[in-house]
Amino acid sequence: MSPAKKKPAAIGDVLAGVLQKAGIARRVEQAGIIPEWGALVGPQIAKVTDPQSIAADGTLFVHVTTNAWMMELSMMEPELLMALNAKPGRAPVKKIRWLIRQG
């Protein structure tokens, strides 16, 4: 008898397993906020912001075009955090660090 051949695993399943074993699956999922930013905050805010990274402590770093927008967005932070954290199961964004875009 020949040994049964295994069906090849999907690369996504293999990668998910590797990330889980490495203990970084939650961080990768949390970083998914960056490409989803525009859909989560809307086109007007997306036009004047650029999310950069998210730290392990849940701090999201976002570049802003002007001081006026930085002040406005700082006041809107509770509502923005609710929108960013609406997806169940994702490690939450705990705070947003607004930075003026250089150059």
Count of individual beta strands: 3
CATH architecture: 2-Layer Sandwich
> Which oligomeric form is depicted?
single chain
Structural class based on helices, strands and sheet pairing: alpha+beta
CATH superfamily: DnaA, N-terminal domain
Biggest beta-sheet profile: 3 strands, mixed
Reported by name, the CATH topology is GMP Synthetase, Chain A, domain 3
* Rounded radius of gyration (Å): 18 Å
Summarize the topology.
Elements lengths: L10 H12 L2 H7 L1 H9 L1 H6 E6 L4 E6 L2 H18 L10 E6 L3
Parallel strand pairs: 2-3
Antiparallel strand pairs: 1-2
Features:
elongated; 103 residues; alpha+beta; single chain; GMP Synthetase, Chain A, domain 3
What does this entry show, briefly?
By secondary structure, the protein is an alpha+beta fold.
Structural commentary:
- By secondary structure, this protein is an alpha+beta fold.
- It has one domain: DnaA, N-terminal domain (GMP Synthetase, Chain A, domain 3, 2-Layer Sandwich), CATH 3.30.300.
- 50% of the residues lie in helices and 17% in strands.
- It contains 5 helices and 3 strands.
- Strands 1-2-3 form a 3-stranded mixed beta sheet.
- A hairpin with a 4-residue loop joins strand 1 and strand 2.
- The longest helix is centred in the C-terminal third of the chain and has 18 residues.
